[in-house]
Amino acid sequence: MRNVRILDTTLRDGEQSPGCSMDVKEKIEAARALEKLGVDIIEAGFPAASPGDLAAVQTVSGIVQNAAVCALARAKKDDIDAAWAGVRAAVSPVLHVFLATSPVHMAYTLHMSPDEVIETAAAAVAYAKAFCSDVQFSAEDATRSDRAFLARVAEAVIRAGATVVNLPDTVGCATPQEITKLFTYIRSTVHGIENCVLSTHNHNDLGMATANTLAAVAAGAGQAECTINGIGERAGNAALEETVMALRTRADVFQCETRINTRRIYRSSRLIQSITGIPMPPNKAIVGTNAFAHESGFHQHGVMSNPLTYEILRPEDLGIPQSQNILGRHSGLHAFEERLTELGYHLTREELDAAFEKFKALAGKKKVILDYDLEALVGSHTEERVARYSLVNFVINSGNAISSTAVVKLSDGESEIERVALGDGPVDAAFKAVNDIVGMELTLESYRLSSVTGGEDALGEAVVHLRGARRSVVGRGLSTDVIEASIRAYVSGVNKLVGDAAPAEEKPL
Ligand code: KIV
Ligand code: ZN
């Protein structure tokens, strides 16, 4: 079995996608999860993009112990300086330099001749190499580049010291057959490629990102670049969970293995959904809620006789909680802690006490508490940040023949402030009352309400994307009362935006 390295770019390419931006706390939480998941390299950001990006990469570099940490840079000295400032404190730093190699980019974005591109790429790699022994070079838009030219670029950057050469399908247009040919060609043509890791990075514009990643691996790529849940620019990147489970399930075909602890896949997916506020469609491969649901009686009968009839994956191998585990209002701290440990959560004493309090409050309203509820309660500690505002109480008056009225009382830690607002429905009225209390310019970009489990007393989860003066954040609220969940989500978004003095963050990529 050959080992394939997994470079996770959820915190860089993933974070670049609309509505997915993460603050430093969220990046830390995600990086810790990726480390436990067993990824080989965490691409933590693009430090030249903004001081905030640089600070986030530095923080991630300071905490990750068991994975390399990588930062992206254009083929420019300033970018490389910023990237090095980001990762220099990492246990295993990697500098990732990129430059486009396709005719359309050379003509319209770079305004460089092919020879200038080769020279610039090699010079940038040599510059990066003076700081860091691990340097990755990406030939942006490689799949639309002339192959012989791409081979010349690869040879030049290898001579300059690149240890990884990445051939991205930047616009997601390649087919698996083309990827096979490209990787086979580069492996057989480029001098020195045998001493380098060949990497693959595929976008999903035509829905072929995972297939292309697997084709590259089959053709000799030693590194696959992926994101959790496939988030990323436009239609996203190859999904880590799909790539890893395909390699593992069809090891007979690929003859490859990864270091990923697949039992942490489900939790990592949920964490990224929670941080970004972007849910997975129910039929999403590997992590969708229907991925293991057999609806037809014919299939159900087959699976009951022998799971091998229709199941190629086992939910337990992905760490999917088994919903038959039930706790209730009589369950004590010990049973609660034991179940969390079985689910893989290891909380500090403080976190455990806080989570147990929430559990007791929920158990007062909901007869049975399933693993999915527990997971929603403790799934993201990001919500536990020091909060300026907290909900004290609210009263709603609503009906189909009257305007809705909300009376909302929040505490700002020192005093309690109450406001009344009219709205187009109870949620709108409640959000307007909150706006009035906090006195901030806020735009509600999206609002979603879902139930964590089934049943009349199900826990409702509200997620909002809220835009303040300078950026957009995700707020999340849980309650068995959907209006309360909605207000909590809105207030949690507000808390992230309070005192937000950072300049608007530009993403030049
Ligand atoms: O898609 C792409 O080409 C990239 C590079 C910067 C690696 O994300
Ligand atoms: Zn990309």
In brief, what are we looking at here?
With 509 residues, this protein is α/β, with parallel strands linked by helices. Helices cover 39% and strands 20% of the residues. Strands 2-3-4-5-6-7-8-9 form an 8-stranded parallel barrel, surrounded by 7 helices. Strands 13-14-15 form a 3-stranded antiparallel beta sheet. Strands 16-17-18 form a 3-stranded antiparallel beta sheet.
Structure, described:
By secondary structure, this protein is an alpha/beta fold. Helix content is 39%, strand content 20%. The protein has 18 helices and 18 strands. It has helices spanning 10-14, 24-37, 51-63, 77-87, 103-110, 114-129, 147-159, 176-189, 209-218, 240-249, 251-254, 265-276, 297-305, 333-342, 349-363, 371-378, 426-438, 482-497; strands at residues 2-3, 5-8, 41-45, 68-74, 93-100, 135-140, 164-169, 197-202, 223-226, 256-257, 326-327, 369-370, 390-397, 404-411, 416-423, 443-451, 460-467, 472-479. The strands form five sheets. It has an eight-stranded parallel beta barrel, surrounded by seven helices. Strands 13-14-15 form a three-stranded antiparallel sheet. Strands 16-17-18 form a three-stranded antiparallel sheet. Helix 2 (24-37) runs parallel beside helix 3, helix 3 (51-63) runs parallel beside helix 4 and helix 7 (147-159) packs across helix 8. The longest helix is centred in the first third of the chain and has 16 residues, at 114-129. It starts with a strand and ends in a 12-residue tail after the last helix. The model is unreliable at 502-508 (pLDDT under 50). It binds 3-methyl-2-oxobutanoic acid and zinc ion. 3-methyl-2-oxobutanoic acid is lined by residues 13, 98, 138, 140, 166, 168, 170, 201, 203.
